[in-house]
Amino acid sequence: MALLRRGVSRRAFLKFSAAMTAVLAMPLSFAPRIAAAVESAPRIPLIWLRGLSCGGDSQAFLQPTSPAIGELLVSMLSLEYDEALMAATGADATGALANLKQRFPNGYIAVVEGAIPTAESGIHATLGGRPVRDVVSEVCAGALGTIAVGSCAFDGGVSAAAGGLTGAVGVGRVISTPHLVNLPGCPVNGDNLAATLVHYLTVKEFPPTDGLGRPFFAYGGLVHNQCERRAYFEFGEFVQSWGDEASQKGWCLYKMGCKGPQTFANCPTQKYAESSSWNVLAGHGCIGCTMPGFWDGMGGAYQRLPAPLPFLPDVSSDTIGLALTGGVAGLAVAHGAASYVRQWRVRSSKRPIHPPGPAPQPAPEPVPEATAELVAEPTTEPTAEPAAEPAAEPAEEPTPAPAPGLASEPRERINAVDAAFALGDVATPPDALEGRPLAGDTPEDAS
Amino acid sequence: MTRLVIDPVTRVGGQLRVEAELSGGTVGEAWLSATSFRGIESILRGRPARDAWLLAQRVCGSCTGVHALASVRAVENALGLSIPKNARLVRNLITATTLVQEHVVNFYLRELPDWADPAAALTADPAATSALARSISDWPNSGSDWYAAARERLAALVKPGASGPFNKAWTGHPAYRLPPEASLMLYGHYLEALDWQRQLVRIRTILGGKSPHPQTYLVGGMAMAPEWGGPTRPSPDEHPSARHSPPPLSQIGLADIDALLTTAALFVNSVFEGDVLTVAAHYPEWQQIGRGIGHYLSFGEFALADSQPAQLLLARGRVMDRDFAHPRAIDQESVAESVDHAWYEYADVHDALLHPAMGQTRPRYAGPALPYSALAGFDKYSWIKAPRYADDPMEVGALARLLVANGAGNSYARSGVDRVAFKLERGMDALFSTVGRTVARAIEAQLIVARMGEWLRELVANLAQGDLALVNLDAWDPARWPSSAAGFGLAEGPRGAIGHWLTIRDGRIADYQIVDGSTWNGSPRDNRGRPGACEQALVGTPIADPNRPLEVLRTIHSFAVCPACAVH
Q1: Could B212 and A56 be called an inter-chain contact, meaning their C-beta atoms sit closer than 8 Å?
Q2: Is A19's Cβ below 8 Å from some Cβ in B?
Q3: A359 lies in a domain?
Q4: What is d(CA B471, CA B90) in angstroms, rounded to the nearest whole number?
Q5: Do A249 and A329 lie in a common domain?
Q6: Is residue A307 in a domain?
């Protein structure tokens, strides 16, 4: 009823609840519960902060499917601070960031868009003459939870890619709250953001997340497995050249460099802007923008990924089984190679991983095919480890290179989980794989 | 002398700060400072040149797609590549969507709070508002019931104690002069614009796969392909993808775009210009304030034919000293950047100004230690470089495009200018002002939205004739490229002229420089101490209340300065 008073029609509201239930992959019978919870809850105060960003996630925030942004602002959120929209300016604007805990005794949620620069005491992004980094850590420390929207807030994104000069990191590296949820993507999908907020409103906590802090409802499945062109992959029907007959028939873009087989996101099912489209539908491969360090770690946009499965036209179910076994064996080999690289990195850990100072680094060579990119570890920089354990991260000085052996361990598992998914094990949710030994955990296991 | 500081300037993309010296109630001098730096140019170095557009378009997420366009053009220019007709039309449509969306969003979401007091809107009489709205246009949402409901929705955001985007707005500021009814009408359209832009953006999403950051460009054309058999084949249902959202160049996809375009154009044609002129009519003195430097530069946009050099809808050229009847030709060779007042250094060069092809991005912060309260007394004060054309500072953007196109004899631009000049107190001269920039965006939005329909029909007709090509693959394989090449790509974005310059070595980017529209407008002082376009336009702005310098925001927002783009 509160919402009706706020000028949102009952019909629009129920439609919205149903849509959110769908995004969160809950049974539709949950829709009334979501509706009831959202309706009775007071609006959540939202503080939207910006680091090094292009403003694209703010733009995406204006475009969730349902409810329309206008309704969202009136009904669910009270946007206390958002430089993109707020009328207040200057000191009056930043004044809205003071005494947040006193002003909102029931708490508030912080949203951070953009990377946080840490080099040279943060002079690469300031707000009111202060480093954005300080503002972000203050605001997030007092928040009920923090949502890092977009790839830049997740792990530094484009600003942290090779050649970056600003020491940019993800939000998880500069704040110490455990209540952090990452919504990577370049840009974030506005629907996933709305659904995360609705989830919070309904059950008073963030949706369950994977080891990188990404909610399962949005990042639990592989793009490849949800793709409408997946069938063509199975039958070996590929676009071989831009604009060819196959591309007109909508065949698989794997050979054109699509990163769908290594990327976890719900783009194929949720799509963008009222489910209008997503990039594969518009004819271009996925670039893996929800994955850590994707600008450097996935090879060029048009470089083919190594095969997740041997593609044979007309494979029978028997041969698929064989192929899977072969795939797992291949994974074990790949993992062995990765373990070797890891040990090598432990040995060479005296060497600082982040060269201090602003010397421009050349972009790395594309990942050589030989290192079987299923385990993506070898070439990625450790900047690509946001928020694996935010609480454990020291909130102080910039990027003290984490002990590589320790820090890369969770990544290793995640990559293995990713790889298991790449092999087509759709039915098992990633959390079921957590903690149990995976094929290829050590080379010995696999042999 | 009072010095005022606004940091952050809100409703812009990124971190922006302005400092101004007041003398006698007006701004004597102003300094615009972008306070963040990402280093996109150095990050681009070493990457495959075919991938450049993907990363380069991350320069801006609100004027999205235009940096991708400038970037693919730069690579195509370096390789001497032409693109197929279909690709040209699709690129026009994506760019046009961005221009129209940004023009509308800039007025309602960014500028309106500077002109209309949200609190005043709550005191308006819905019936009188309805009468006012209906005297201006035949837009259907204009009944008194509709305005009563709009007032209620607005109240939830504005009322004292209510929190939201209007919290701590400068309500009751003496510089607000719109009557309550006009304010309610405009804020009613503010709420509508929020929904309207969602619909318009679907055009760019259908064509580009996602929004912002459309992902369907290729060096040589576009990645999208028409459906097998072309969009006119008999049954659209047999294709499996018809079960999902339609592909961009399918029969359904093209029909969807057409429908979205029709509704989008309605709002632009019946509401937008009327609202802008309402503001102009109540602030006649703002038709003289914020005149700026008077030099206008346009790189031109929207190729109308496939011939080279392309015939452009909005002409390429410049207007010097407001002499709009005689636009002059331009050459990208004359663009150069100074870092004398920006936080960079040039190494091993004696020239103060560097052409972007020779450009350098070496950040060297030389401002106060953090935290600071003033940039006064520091020679260098911004992360934005200072671009100059043939040594002169220039203003870019919709107004510049309109003036150049008008001078070059574009009948659409001319009729738009005439129609509006007739309604403005000071006629054509009113365009050289803070209000004039916004009026120019309203004219341009209508001009472009009308052409979008033509491009769409041209695209459908061309596909139907069996021309299904969207990409020129002559130079797709980098192995066939010369071992080194250099090129530039020029484009026009919502905020003005965009240039990308790159050199390619062995298929990879050796050097990359970007000069955005906001780099021109938001430029700091140059090697000769001359201010940038926005800084100059702020001079002479009357300030009623130095503690609440609302008037400064009007001019900054009229440029739609985007510090994130400007610095990149």
Answers
A1: yes
A2: no
A3: no
A4: 11
A5: no
A6: no
Domain-located, residue A306:
no
Picking from B192, B341, B352, the residue whose alpha carbon sits closest to that of residue B270 is B192
Q: Which amino acid is at A115?
A: A
DSSP readout, B135-171? HH---SS-SHHHHHHHHHHHHHHHSTT--STTTT--T
* A284:B224 CB<8 A: yes
In B22-125, which ranges are continuous DSSP H helix?
40-44, 52-56, 66-79, 85-105, 112-115, 118-121
Q: CB contact, 8 Å: A228 with chain B?
A: yes
Q: pLDDT below 70 — which residues of chain A? A: 1-9, 64-75, 308-447
User: Are A405 and A337 within one domain?
Assistant: yes
- Is residue A213 within 8 Å of residue A180, measured between CB atoms? yes
Output the pTM of the full model: 0.86
The ipTM estimated for the assembled molecules is: 0.95
- Residues A285 and A179 both lie in one domain: no
User: Residue B228 and residue A249: Cβ atoms within 8 Å?
Assistant: yes
Neighbours of A351 (CB within 10 A): 9
Structural tokens at position B470: 């969207």
User: With contacts defined as CB-CB under 8 Å, which chain A residues touch B226?
Assistant: 248
Distances in Å between the Cα of A389 and the Cα atoms of A181, A293, B86 are 12, 17, 49
Domains detected in chain B: 2-365+385-567 (1.10.645.10)
Structurally, how many domains does chain A consist of?
3
The number of CA neighbours under 13 Å toward the Cβ of B401 is: 32
What are the structure tokens assigned to A273, written together? 């802007």
> In this complex, do B62 and A85 lie within 8 Å of one another by their Cβ atoms?
no
Give per-residue pLDDT as tens, A203-236. Answer: 889 999 999 999 999 999 999 999 999 999 999 9
Whether A362 contacts B45, CB under 8 Å:
yes
Question: What is the number of other CB atoms lying within 10 angstroms of the CB of residue B308?
Answer: 8
Alpha-carbon gap, residue B2 to A430, rounded angstroms? 61
The C-alpha atoms of residue A84 and residue A253 are separated, in whole angstroms, by 36
Q: Which residues of chain B have pLDDT under 50?
A: 236, 238-243
